[in-house]
């Protein structure tokens, strides 16, 4: 393993760092989404039960216990339930806009890592080929075969390593971004139903 990294040259270090960062972000986001989905399912179930009886204090307690973006928005809606529907919607929408970035946390960096890894691999290809042509230019027809092989190996290793990091990073970046959008959409739907219930339009 060390020999493979060594054969790729100095550019393998930033590529390796990108790979470690991408792995951390992917695992952290997967755990995060799994956690909030479980908590939000329980929150919706609990809210359905207590709001049917008009128990707003218990509803707020369940929101505090959940500690998810959805619970923050629901708590804000409960806190302004005595306002007009238009005012309530405006306040709730501001709260949704405030908590929505929690779903996208790290995802911009993950997308950037995918792009950087590709470019680092390409850069390694270019520098490796420059070295290879330098060997050919300074040593006759074939130059030094060992140095030539080392330069070609560097070009191929950095390309392969860059793509190895970039491809899964890009896949998970897109998948997690869609997941974040879905969470925001579900949150908006839940809060809309809550507002209709609080304003007496839906029982």
UniProtKB/TrEMBL annotation:
<keyword id="KW-1133">Transmembrane helix</keyword>
<feature type="transmembrane region" description="Helical">
    <location>
        <begin position="146"/>
        <end position="172"/>
    </location>
</feature>
<dbReference type="Pfam" id="PF01618">
    <property type="entry name" value="MotA_ExbB"/>
</dbReference>
<dbReference type="InterPro" id="IPR002898">
    <property type="entry name" value="MotA_ExbB_proton_chnl"/>
</dbReference>
<protein>
    <submittedName>
        <fullName>Biopolymer transport protein ExbB</fullName>
    </submittedName>
</protein>
<dbReference type="GO" id="GO:0017038">
    <property type="term" value="P:protein import"/>
</dbReference>
<keyword id="KW-1003">Cell membrane</keyword>
<feature type="domain" description="MotA/TolQ/ExbB proton channel">
    <location>
        <begin position="68"/>
        <end position="188"/>
    </location>
</feature>
<keyword id="KW-0653">Protein transport</keyword>
<keyword id="KW-0812">Transmembrane</keyword>
<keyword id="KW-0813">Transport</keyword>
<feature type="transmembrane region" description="Helical">
    <location>
        <begin position="12"/>
        <end position="35"/>
    </location>
</feature>
<keyword id="KW-0472">Membrane</keyword>
<feature type="transmembrane region" description="Helical">
    <location>
        <begin position="106"/>
        <end position="126"/>
    </location>
</feature>
<dbReference type="InterPro" id="IPR050790">
    <property type="entry name" value="ExbB/TolQ_transport"/>
</dbReference>
<dbReference type="GO" id="GO:0005886">
    <property type="term" value="C:plasma membrane"/>
</dbReference>
<comment type="similarity">
    <text>Belongs to the exbB/tolQ family.</text>
</comment>
């Amino acid at each position: 393993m060390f020999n493979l990294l060594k054969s790729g040259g100095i550019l393998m270090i930033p590529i390796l760092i990108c790979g470690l960062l991408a792995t951390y972000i992917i695992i952290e986001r997967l755990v995060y989404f799994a956690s909030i989905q479980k908590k939000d399912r329980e929150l919706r179930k609990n809210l359905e039960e207590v709001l049917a009886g008009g128990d707003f204090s218990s509803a707020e307690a369940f929101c505090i216990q959940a500690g998810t973006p959805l619970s923050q928005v629901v708590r804000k809606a409960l806190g302004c339930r005595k306002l007009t529907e238009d005012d309530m919607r405006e306040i709730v929408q501001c709260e949704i806009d405030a908590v929505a970035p929690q779903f996208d946390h790290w995802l911009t960096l993950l997308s950037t890592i995918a792009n950087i890894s590709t470019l680092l691999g390409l850069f390694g290809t270019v520098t490796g080929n420059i070295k290879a042509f330098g060997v050919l230019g300074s040593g006759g027809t074939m130059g030094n075969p060992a140095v030539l092989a080392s330069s070609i190996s560097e070009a191929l290793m950095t390309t392969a390593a860059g793509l190895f990091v970039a491809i899964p990073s890009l896949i998970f970046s897109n998948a997690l971004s869609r997941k974040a959008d879905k969470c925001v959409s579900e949150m908006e739907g839940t809060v809309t139903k809550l507002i209709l219930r609080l304003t007496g339009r839906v029982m």
